[in-house]
Design a protein that fits this description.
397 residues
Length: 397
């Protein structure tokens, strides 16, 4: 265990706490078992290390380990937990749990056997985590960390601290919020860069290799995880890649499942199932007519890529501005709110609010007389009435 403790202290010494994700303040860290899940590269490891450093420093009551460490090739996680507790350990932080076979069963056993030990774990294979949820469902508090919001991008890449604004703040006070933000930050100036490069924190490590790393992540999900964890046939992987490209270039993508099934050579039921798997893997976001009663066989009414950075990597040629705008809105506003398809406008949120997304000259007449309806416009710093700037929805977390 000494090598793991040494690695723990090394990682903490290299941890920067100048910028911390907003999710940190919402996690109930005192729970006995906390899971932080999210796509590769969104910052789960950094968040965990920052919390350890800020709350325990180099105190040995806390231990961070990554389960892809070679130490686990001939050691059991349960043996580590036993040794750690016997030496006074109280807070065990487990990173990349999906790299360790039978991780969920062992964590369950550790939770049951050591009631004074608190465990936090992270996982990047969302499909693997979903498979294991049954083992931990009654024990773990699960939190989802997605990529940087526009607000977090401004803080991390430009040193500009902007307020977190909830939905009600934005709907009722967007003019005052604009005045506060524009006084110290020009959102329009940086918005395009965020849409292309600002979603994953690791962009700063090597900007030139960023598109390649994103594409590698997508390929890993398609070529390894989907066949292994969802039984997707290898012969259809290339078709799924083509489908993601089509989605990225559409304005936005409204699927005709029958025609898509014919083009890809899949049965209709197979195609709808594969779309659900892509959604589980956080490669796409799908809108349904009634999100409260979604079944594996229900076809989506609209499909977006999960974030706009993926659009720039997977799309070729000119991207649709309309698709970029709606993808941004779905990603940022949909993080903590329920979005549904609505024939009257682009989005129906929380069963109450209607949003139409467009450019700065988007007309309001389509929503005239509709209650709780808002026009969300790109390329404007200030809104008026029920017209709200698009970038402002990037302040929601």
């Amino acid at each position: 265990m000494e090598s793991l403790i040494e690695k723990h202290h090394q990682r903490l010494s290299l941890t920067d706490t100048r910028f911390v994700r907003s999710l940190k303040d919402r996690i109930q860290w005192d729970s006995r078992l906390v899971g932080i899940i999210g796509a590769r590269g969104v910052g789960k490891t950094t968040l965990m290390l920052q919390y350890i450093l800020q709350n325990y420093g180099q105190d040995n009551i806390a231990l961070y380990v990554s389960l892809d460490n070679i130490w686990f090739a001939d050691h059991r996680l349960s043996a580590l937990a036993d040794d750690f507790v016997k030496h006074g350990g109280r807070h065990l932080f487990l990173d990349e749990v999906h790299k360790y076979p039978s991780w969920s069963q062992e964590i369950k056993n550790i939770y049951d056997d050591y009631p004074n030990l608190k465990i936090v774990f992270t996982g990047s294979s969302l499909l693997e985590i979903l498979n294991a949820r049954a083992d931990l469902s009654r024990r773990a508090d699960i939190y989802h960390l997605q990529g940087l919001s526009f607000r977090e991008y401004a803080a991390m890449f430009h040193g500009i601290n902007l307020p977190v604004c909830g939905l009600q703040d934005i709907l009722g006070h967007h003019i005052e919020i604009s005045a506060e933000v524009v006084g110290k930050f020009k959102p329009i100036r940086y918005f395009g860069d965020y849409l292309q490069n600002g979603y994953y924190p690791y962009y700063s490590e090597n900007p030139g290799r960023y598109p390649m790393r994103l594409e590698e992540t997508v390929n890993m999900i398609l070529e390894i995880e989907l066949p292994l964890l969802r039984g997707v046939e290898y012969g259809y992987i290339h078709k799924l890649k083509q489908l993601l490209q089509i989605i990225s270039q559409s304005a936005p993508f409204v699927p005709n499942v029958s025609k898509l099934a014919e083009r890809t050579g899949m049965a209709r039921i197979t195609l709808v199932s594969y779309l659900k798997y892509l959604e589980e893997a956080k490669l796409i976001t799908a809108l349904y007519k009634n999100s409260a009663e979604i079944s594996i066989l229900q076809k989506p009414e609209k499909i977006f890529l999960e974030n706009t950075n993926l659009m720039h990597v997977l799309g070729s040629g000119q991207l649709s501005k309309g698709n970029l705008r709606e993808t941004f809105f779905a990603n940022q506003a949909g993080y903590e709110h329920a979005l549904q398809y609505d024939a009257r406008a682009d989005f129906f949120m929380d069963g109450k609010y209607i949003f139409e997304i467009g450019g700065k000259d988007k007309p309001k007449k389509q929503l005239t007389g509709t209650e709780n309806a808002f026009v969300v416009s790109d390329d404007i710093e200030y809104g008026s009435g029920n017209r709200i700037p698009l970038w402002m929805f990037g302040l929601m977390y």
